[in-house]
Amino acid sequence: xxxxxxxFLTYKNLNQPQLWKHFFINNNEYNIYIHNKEDFTGDxxxxxxxxxxxxxxxxxxxxxxTLLLFEExxxxxxxxxxxxxxxxxxxxxNFNSIYKKIFELDSSIINQFENHKND
Length: 119
Prior knowledge:
- Strands 2-1-3 form a three-stranded parallel β-sheet.
- With 119 residues, the chain is an alpha/beta fold.
- The protein has helices spanning 17-24, 61-74, 95-105, and strands at 3-10, 30-36, 79-86.
């Protein structure tokens, strides 16, 4: 099964954990990885990666933390695509819509989701 790796680079917990919990409900085509600066508890604490470094804003430590996230995600061969997110990110589309769009495009995308309204 092809999966999307959701890689969160966070300060603490996700800002909207209930929103993310609802986003992932009834889906299993994903894996979650979190590199956090400060400890937290809750639904997403089980996804904290064990290999972490102390991060500081605007330094190379953020790049190194991101690489640690991707390194952990690459260990799982089911992960086909990788999304880098912050704790402030929120999903604007439902999981199935995002999954379908990513696998249809079959390429790297940055800010590709657009709202097309019927006039």
